[in-house]
Structures are given as C-alpha cells and as structure tokens.
Amino acid sequence: MSNPIKNRLSISFWCLPIIFSIILFSCQDVEQEKIQEVFSLDMQSQFSLPDFVPGQYIVMLHDDKINFRKSRDFFANKENMRREANQLLSKYNIPEEKVLRAMGTVKPIFGVHLNEEEYNKLKLDPSIKSIHNDIYLYPSFQRNRPPKKDEPKDDDSGDENETNQINWGQDRIDQRLLPLDGEFNRVATGKGVKIFIIDSGINPDHEEFGGRVSAGWTSYESALEDCSNHGTPVAGLAGGNRFGVAKDAELISCRIFPSWTEGCEAVATGIEFYQILDSIASYAEGPTVVNMSFGGPGNQDIVDIWEDFLINIKNQGIVLIASAGNQSDNACNYTPAGAPSVFAVGASNIDDTMSGFSNWGSCIELFAPGNMLKTASALSNSSYFEYFGGTSAAAPIVAGVAALYLEQNPSASVDEVYDFLRNTSTKNVIRFSESPNNNLIYSLLNSEGANDNADYENPDQYQLNINVGKGSGQRWFVSLNWSPFIVNDSQMDIYEDGSLIMTVQNRDWVTLEVSGRNLPPRTYKVCKSGTTECSNEAVAIFK
C-alpha cells in the first residue's frame, strides 16, 4: 500500500551497561579508590508533571448523534467532526477556538479546553457518551548511566555479515533456555507487514533501515526526524537490519513526542494519541502492527474509556503492542498497557529475571528482553546505542515477532496473533516477577519446547541487578537495584566483597562511584539489615 498519510501531525531515565563477561587479568597498579553514593535521578519526578492535563478534556459522542457519514477519509472525517464539536459547544456559549483536535474515523471524538463551569454544562449533554480529563503520556525507556555518558557512537563492529552482529535480546528470544549461544536464527523477516511506530520520530536514513521507513501522521513539522532519540532505537529493535527482529518489515513513523532536551520534557497527551490511531485506522491495509513504547496513568475509569476506543482499532485488524511501563508497579494502573485490547509487554534481564524497573501484574501478557540492548541511534546514520533499555525496548521486540507471524499468516485476526504469541512463548522462565504470566517471547514461530523450562530454584530473598558504567577519566559507576521492595521493611545493608559499606533506607537502588585503574572485579550483595535475608551475589567488571 502506498501511504497517503501526509506529514501533519511507570518515567525512569537511568542507563548503565550490564556486563556479564568473565575476564581474568592481573590486578597491578590498582590506585587508591574512592567509593561514594551517587544520586540517581528519576526524570519524571524531577519534572513533577501531574497525571492529568489541567483544563483539557477528551469528549466522545454517541455514534448515532453525529450528522455526517463516517468513511476511510481521515481528513474529511476530521473536518466533519470539528464542525460537530463547534455546533455542540455553541449551545453552551463555549468558543469554538477551544477545540484542540477532532477525529471521526474510529469514534466521534474531540479534544477541548474547558473551565470548570463549561465542563459542568457540557458533561450533561445527551449527545456525549464520555468526557474525561486528558492525560500525559511518557516514553517508557531507561537511561541507567551517568548523565552524558550514554551518548550513542558510530558502529565499528565490522562486516555486517558477521555472525556476531546481534544484541543479546535477539540471541535470547530464538532459544528456549539459557545459556546464550551467540546466534539469532530467523524463520521469517516481516516482509509485507507494516509496523507503525508511535513515538518521537525515526531517522529514516539510518543504515539499519535500508529505506524501509516512511512517514505517518504527526502534528509536528516532520515524522522523519527524531530529536528525542527514542523512536529510532525503538524502530531499530522492531525492524533493524542487524539489531532488529523483523528486518524486512515496513516501518511507519507516527511522531507523538516533541524534542526531549534539558528543560523540555518528552511528553504527549491522550488526544494526540487518539488522533494518530485514528489516522492509522483510516489508511492501514494488510497486516498491521502498532508499537506503543509509552504510557500514562490508568485508573479503571480511564482504562474503560480508552478501551472503548482501542477495541475499535483492534476490531479493524490492527495489532496493538504496548510497553508495560517502568514504574515497578502494577501495569493495570497505566494506559494503554492496562486496556484489554492491548498486548502489554514487560522487560527482562539477560539472566531471565524481571528487570527491576519493569511494571508487572495480570495485565502483562509476557516479557521480552528490555535492558542494555544495542540498537540504532538518531544522532547519525551510522550511530548506535550500546545500552538502550526499558519496557520501551521490550515492546518493539514483540512487535517484531508479531510481524514475523503475520508475514506467514497475513489474514490472521488480532486475537489469533495474540494467542500465537502467548502459546509459543517460553513458559515460566522469568524470575522475581509478581506476574501470573512469567513467560518469554519466542521468535521461531513454533511451540516446540515451550513448556520445557528449567526448574529454577532460587533460595535468595532478594533479586539483585547490577549495571556498570564508565565515567570520565578513571571513574566508574556501579548501580545496584533489587526487588522486592517492601515499603515498611526497607532498610538494606550493601556489601562489597563481603564487607558492609553502607546502609540505605526506603528505596530499592543505590549507585556507587568507584575510582581506579586496572580494577579487579567486585562482588556485591544486599541484605535486610540485621538479618541473613540476602540477595544473590552480583559481580561488577570494570572493562
């Protein structure tokens, strides 16, 4: 299909590399070290944005209360719906310039600014099916390295045909059990399938994409730029030539986020999301997957209202894959992950533990690798993230597998796609997860061995994850995070090489600064203060 769409349209940002290689070297010339706790900043807390957009509402009308015939013409429906909104507002002397966006392909919806008096009048109108406060949406990715130490760099890994041109996530999803075998075997490539990436834009000229990126709807100047450098790595994991799952899928960029720079949040709103999905529903033909690596608040009222919209998208044959969120919370409390029509994905680590930041719970369908993955960066046409992570990374891996299945089964319904992903996933391998579906995505499109999981027995009381990042000069940063986190029982002792080095309270993370040259590996563990209830031991390697 030619694309007729014109260019109009739980957040933690930590990032530290996980290093699991074992190396032997002499410990000569070790300098005097300095260990100090380093403050790790949660960007969403820094900005302290509310969940809801003040004075902004999303209004959905009853289908039988509109005076125009809906069609597949996105722009005609948009203009017709704007007229409907203006007429409705005029009944209550609300200025028409308060209308933000309007759409009518999927459901008759418009966004509007209202004061309290206007809201109280409008909500009683019988033509309105629902009206609710708009919400903020945030990308679901992790920056776990010190500020400005995780910038992407040009790839120097050599021949693209080398067998090692994969990330550990690809390596993991084509096999049932650990250890990794260093390979990524493909049984399909996603050819003929469209993956819509609703995100911050995509750099279409990156070498990972081979000319397969096109522009979808955006309210910004262009969908084919990525000033926030989030949509490009997400697209790279879904469909990159080397570090993606579906290397021949068509990638369509629908930009929802503005630039993320210092002092400027990468934040969008629900009405923007609605309009992008409305545009996709207008023009999508053939097997279609939508990736949504973002989320916002989702109490039951919000989830129910969003589901009323999303189920209509799903019923048009559009597969909806979403990140579970990075709040270490119940995914059912967030949107769109909590909506029943959406396939929500949690993040796992290289050792098959749930990533400490990942949301969990019954709304998660399965897990996918979501920590420290190599993928494309928007900074240049040949630059790469070495350590991209978050449930933002896990979702596009699943979107890629869905595209592989749809290549071979182009007429499959959305429910058939969802059932296939569930049924072929590797069962019960994700540890330290408070989810009923502790299953890992599988890319070889069969269910052989899906239930032949290892008998994981874990005597540890806590799961400890470790990330190591290089600072300037001879400085290193060791980030530890652990689970579970019990609010009223959270004083934890931190041990390094068997010695107590500090105690922390009311949190589940700590970042240490270590200085020195030719540093030997160090072993860390955490214990509940005054007890023998401890975590596994985790090794930091300074390489």
From TrEMBL:
Residues 140-170 are annotated as: Disordered. Residues 190-428 form the Peptidase S8/S53 domain. The active site is at residues 199, 230, 392. Residues 153-162 have a biased composition (Acidic residues). GO terms for molecular function: serine-type endopeptidase activity. It holds the Pfam family Peptidase_S8. One of its GO terms (biological process) is proteolysis. One of its GO terms (cellular component) is extracellular space. CDD domains: Peptidases_S8_PCSK9_ProteinaseK_like (cd04077). Keywords: Hydrolase, Protease, Serine protease. Belongs to the peptidase S8 family. This is Subtilase family protein. It comes from Mongoliibacter ruber. The lineage of its organism: Bacteria, Pseudomonadati, Bacteroidota, Cytophagia, Cytophagales.
